[in-house]
Amino acid sequence: MKTYPMDKIRNVALVAPHGVGKTSLADAMLHVTGKVGRRGNVDDGTSVFDYLDEEIARKQTISASLAWTEFDGVKINIIDTPGVDDFRGDMHAALRVVEGVLFVVKGDGGFEVAAENLWNHLRTTRLSTFIVINRMNKEHADFQSVLAGLSDRIAGVAPCQLPIGEGEGFKGVVDLIHLKAYEFDGDKAVEVPIPAGMADQVETAREQLIDAAASADDALTEKYLEELTLAEADLIAGLKKGTAEGTVYPVFLTAADTGVGVNALLRAVVDMIPTSYRRARSEMTGVKAGTGTPVAFVPAADGPAVAFAFKRQYEAQGGDVTWLRLFSGSLSSGDTVECSDGRTSERMGQMSVALGRQKEKIDKATAGDIVVAAKLKNTHTGMTLCSGIDIALPPIRYPVPTSADAIRPVTSGDEDKMSAGLTKIHEEDPTFELRHQGNLSQTLLVTQGEMHTGYILDKLKRQTGVEVERARPRIAFKETIRGTAEKQGRHKKQTGGRGQFGDVHLRIEPLPRGTGFEFADEIVGGVVPNKFIPAVEKGCRETLLQGLVAGYEMVDVRCALFFGSYHNVDSSEAAFKAAARIALKKAMEEDSAKLRPVILEPVMKVRIVVPQAYMGDVMGDISTRRGAIQGSEADGPYQVVTANVPEDELYQYATSLRSFTQGTGTFTMEFSHYAEVPGDVQARLVDDYRKHRTEDE
Known about the structure:
The protein is α+β, with helices and mostly antiparallel strands.
């Protein structure tokens, strides 16, 4: 296969909400360049990019896919990313390894609400970004309306094309950069004269484009003021600089299902997206493996090999494959490289370039390229592979998973099989977590949302045969007391031989919140021998751990052993341990009015980010969840709301928030503190506990 130098490689990711035609545009890019003979189609399952069985069935992108093509001697690696919120982890990974982004919006819908979060995240990456208005051939497509909507939300929007025809009559574009017009004849773009009726519109739009390009560079501004125009090369240079600096966002027009405008878009990618060398040079900073010591260097084609693993995938025919972005140097089959965990190395096996499902084997990968490596044993997503330098690039920052379900296998005995299967899936998808909570006897699957959870469990069943049962997670409630009581616990049992005898008097009293448990030995005169006192403490700890009110751990309690008695023959550690348990249970049963027990619930600090329009909905919803608003502040077009909300009220909150904010709301949460539950909640928890105890008996 042909080898491309760093300045002849462009790496781009397509980013958009679901339903915008992003994958269709990616397929069209392969078709118009002759990389594939027949244009792939999502609807009939022939897309080069959406090739997984689940994607074909759902007609939506679930996992990022990779393909390459060539345009004017330049290799373009294209990563199509998922548009559904629940699967956007792959988008975060892709943005770590590309130089440019094609942000796709609907010609018949414009900059929709669901695009806001994506756009705001893109701006944090500082990647060169084109805006592509797709579906220009649809019935209700309206270029001027869409452009006005974009300009209202985004500073620096710069149309590089005008449509020839609109809606179902859309048949071509006027290229404002090169002042040429193209119409589509079958699969080919044909140059035509600029329509006479568009002359004034073209002149005005090109002046605006030149002004945007000139404003990106002081030298070009001066030249523009002197000459009142810019040459084509200067125009491209200005747009390229403005795009790289995030001050200009060129706008292009396409109809992916007919191919109109795609050639011009590819020309702009070659002309204005930074080369792989420029991106690499600006990002080659990291740390020495296993330390925090900073490392930085300028990459080069003949420099040390530095590759970043940004995705792992299991393929039925090829087994485990790892996607690598080679930032510097080269890699050949058989090379040995060091892994950034600082403990392992890797021998490179077969490498390939991808065209969706298809792979073309290569012997050598060069700097700037994106390749697929087979059967790497020690390499995980986010690792750096290097030779000639010791460096670990920053890991990928995925969205924090917030949707939790308690899971267990339907078939008893499949627990290990379930855990192993989910661990393997996690290798491909690091955006979910598996948390084992021994104190609550449950395993939590924490994902990006309801759709993500369903997909993972379906995949687990297909791969391992393990069917999983989902349930609302058991919350880590705790119990405590607000008053003091004293109670005797006496354990006496005669079995014909040596008996059992233990007698304790305990004072149970509250401690400040967060203190935990304290045990006090207040025995005077040896009425309880020292050798039995640790057993009393152990009996107290074990009993409180099991709970006395509703089966939850009792905390912030002090147990003082102040009196008791023993038998020279029948007393034992086990007897005194049992006596302590009896004293605590009797205290709760007989002196509940004195102890005034209460259940505590974990309260989470929640940070919610939503457009201003949804502030009322968010605050009203928080109130229904027994939450307390702590504050709000503006962050550009968004409002950031902080609130304290009981964890028990946040089950499936991710799904609810997306629903009433049309997909624009996001949130994160962290533990804040424990607080007393309201009386009705406590009554419900106690009733549930007693009911389950009765059923068990």
